[in-house]
Amino acid sequence: MADRTGTGLGRAGAGTRAGEPGYVLRTATADDLGGARAVMLDTVYRDLRSGYVPRWHADIIDPEAAYLRPERCTLLVVEHRGEIVATGAVRDRGPQAPPNPRWVADRFPSGTTAQLCRIYVRPEHRRHGLARRMVRALGGFAVRAGGYEALYLHTDPAVPGAEPFWRSLAHEVCDERTLPGGGQGIIHFELPMPVLDAASDPTV
After folding, report:
1. How far apart are CA 38 and CA 55, in angstroms?
2. Are the beta carbons of 31 and 38 closer than 8 angstroms?
């Protein structure tokens, strides 16, 4: 079973106001990792209800190795009054088969696929547009990183609000619920690669 996920920003320190006053979207630093990890773990226990599973969530335990060190990966956070309240990341590998369908893995190969993941917002900070801002920023990062040909993600439709949110932004590639036996019950999506200019750069 796969893990279930519910810019123009620089590598470190760049930031932009995210939605309402008091929200700052920026690239994570080492000082943010504790707060980011707390958001992620709370989400996998509360919303995804899987709890911590090492084979799915190793990046949560060591986000520095997963996202901060590799040049073509990133971790973004939203800070509100000194607290990290949202996260989002890009990893440089596509879905693996198994457990994902082979044709999905072949369509999104590692190296040329930017996988969006860990797009989590604490419940009390939802409905402020933070996730949409995060998605735009991560797409911009993928374009500027270079070498990516596709933006991919998967989500668990059992998480309240996840399926309609992603359907409003992305194109369905495979709904595993329609496969024999229901697959993993997740939905695979592809997002359009953004075309960036100064007007669409959130850091301007």
Report:
1. 18
2. no
- Provide the 3-class DSSP secondary structure of residue 183: coil
Integer Cα distance of 6 and 122 in angstroms: 11
Beta pairing class for 187-191 and 83-91: unpaired
Nearest Cα to Cα of residue 5 among 141, 149, 154, 204: 154
Q: Would you say 139 and 117 are in contact if contact means Cβ atoms under 8 Å apart?
A: no
> Tokens for 109?
């190969």
Cis-peptide, bond into residue 70, ω within 30° of zero: no
Characterize the bridge pairing of strands 113-121 and 150-155.
Answer: parallel
Around Cβ 72, how many Cβ atoms within 10 Å?
A: 16
Side chain identity at 173, as an amino acid letter? V
User: pTM of the predicted model, to two decimals?
Assistant: 0.86
pLDDT tens digit string along 17-52? 555 678 999 999 999 999 999 999 999 988 877 777
For residue range 67-117, what is the model confidence (pLDDT) as tens digits?
Answer: 999 999 999 999 999 999 999 999 999 999 999 999 999 999 999 999 999
